[in-house]
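Project outcomes to date are best conveyed with an example. Our students and postdoctoral researchers have been running inverse folding experiments weekly, and each run begins with a structure described purely in tokens. The record below, which covers 133 residues, was selected by the lab manager from last quarter's runs and is presented without edits.
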């Protein structure tokens, strides 16, 4: 029996390097992590712009986690493919619309979402005008 896809929130950007207000599908090809992620091929994720504190995309995980041992930080990464995208972060819904609070994210690069949180984030993105890239 195959496992059902898991839902995740992928934290994009940092305080030192926030995302620009315009986001294109080309920026949603890989996601990096400092430690081996639990994320697996076939999982679905909501992208969160950390400094903006908004959700702006849905992506599918299309590759297994890979390790780049020569890198000092962000050694792990996996391929992603955008499914829905809201290109202007100024129009993106707050992460609280998904039932997630920024203070709960801490220094994580990804967190597991409940099906309800994922559904709420998806609905918020569609209401805000996200479309297929």
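After processing, the design step wrote out the following sequence:
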């Amino acid at each position: 029996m195959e496992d059902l896809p898991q839902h995740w929130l992928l934290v994009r950007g940092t305080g030192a390097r926030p995302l620009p207000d315009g986001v294109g599908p080309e920026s949603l090809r890989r996601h990096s992590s400092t430690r081996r992620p639990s994320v697996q091929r076939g999982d679905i994720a909501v992208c969160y712009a950390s400094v903006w504190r908004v959700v702006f995309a849905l992506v599918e995980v299309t590759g297994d986690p890979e390790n780049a041992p020569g890198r000092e930080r962000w050694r792990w990464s996996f391929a992603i493919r955008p499914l829905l995208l809201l290109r202007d972060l100024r129009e993106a819904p707050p992460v609280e619309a998904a039932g997630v609070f920024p203070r709960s994210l801490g220094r994580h690069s990804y967190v597991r979402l409940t099906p309800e949180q994922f559904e709420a984030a998806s609905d918020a993105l569609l209401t805000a005008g996200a479309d297929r890239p």
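DSSP finds one helix and seven strands in the chain. The chain has a mean pLDDT of 92. The training component of this project remains on track.
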